[in-house]
Amino acid sequence: MPAFSLDQEQITWCAELRALAAERLRPLAEKGGPGRVNRPLVAALGDLGLLARAVGAGAFDLCLLRESLARECTEAETALALQGLGTHPVAAFGTPAQRARWLPEATAGRAVAAFALSEPGAGSDAAALALDAVPDGRGGWRLHGEKQWISNAPEADFATVFARTTRGAGARGVTAFLVPAGRPGLGGEPLDMLAPHALGTLTFDGVPVGPEDLLGPPDGGFRVAMTTLNLFRPSVGAFAVGMAQAALDAALAHTAARPAFGGVLADLQAVSHRIAEMATRTEAARLLVYAAAAAYDAGDPEVPRRSAMAKLFATETAQYVVDSAVQLHGARALQRGHLLEHLYREVRAPRIYEGASEVQRAIVAKELYGRARTAESASSSAPHEEARAR
């Protein structure tokens, strides 16, 4: 297992990202409305070259991007992540025509992307998708149904949409389509969520799609979805680490200066030990995230397990650290507009989206038991192979 420490170039780049987030992106974020796409912010991310880097990045670079932005401006981080999530399937599985049409616009921040996987009855169980792709008799399909909790919906300019083309086939019967806004029968509404993310519904009333809209082969959409999620899961952990670090920094500054009981809060053992626990968990989460990202970039076959562990531990850690920071600050942290009040609303969602914590535990357990069974099978067959060799 390699040790993870950033080199000087990476350290400098992360510092530059934090400065850009604080000085250029946060003012744009503050002008945006909650729950709606902030197009000036997305355009600024494009102008700065961050969207192009996110779409073309490996997992490790993507994690550094998201962690650095999250420490200073969660809205900028989320806008980048949602754009990357919706655009990656086009970059990885799109046809030359699709890539030529949409990638320049998306990476410049002129076209907003969506990743339309979840449905009212299919959240954690992505293989249970019910959005129906009905053959139209001319080589294409008509989409019928609804998507819910979709990034950047319904304002996105195009969406990666996952629909069922073969009934009764589970994950093997799902197909991915690139669906531009404005298609007949396509509608939707924004959702008012706890965190100020741009999320909404998409409704499909016979929306036409054809072979030219396919992302990957028919019935190959589950691979498109899982490939995208395996890349982004460690970086969800990086987002969480960035929020945890921001909360820890705020708690350190506050407890070191806040007068209490003839000294400052930091003099109290209960407080200093809580800070130490927050810092230790944050660093452990960061290392798990970096390990998962490095494994993805190296083509490690254990990417699903490592990605799941990183997202699970980092998001649960961020919840603990932000909650602890609120507790150490007291009532002031609950005032609207306080950094920790903002983080408290932001930190809850990552434990659910892109695979809830319970799903990540199931993935980890499945991978571990599968590896154990493989090892046991290999061990039991070894004596027979040895006997035949004699």
From TrEMBL:
Cofactor section: FAD
Statement: the UniProt record of this protein carries the keyword Oxidoreductase: yes
Keyword Cytoplasm attributed: no
InterPro entries linked to this entry: Acyl-CoA_DH_CS, Acyl-CoA_Oxase/DH_mid-dom, Acyl-CoA_Oxase/DH_mid-dom_sf, AcylCo_DH-like_C, AcylCo_DH/oxidase_C, AcylCoA_DH/ox_N, AcylCoA_DH/ox_N_sf, AcylCoA_DH/oxidase_NM_dom_sf
Superkingdom field: Bacteria
Domain Acyl-CoA dehydrogenase/oxidase C-terminal: 220-368
Keyword set, alphabetical order: FAD, Flavoprotein, Oxidoreductase
Domain Acyl-CoA oxidase/dehydrogenase middle stretches: 114-205
Every Acyl-CoA dehydrogenase/oxidase N-terminal domain range: 8-109
Pfam family, one: Acyl-CoA_dh_N
Family: Belongs to the acyl-CoA dehydrogenase family.
Protein name as catalogued: Acyl-CoA dehydrogenase family protein
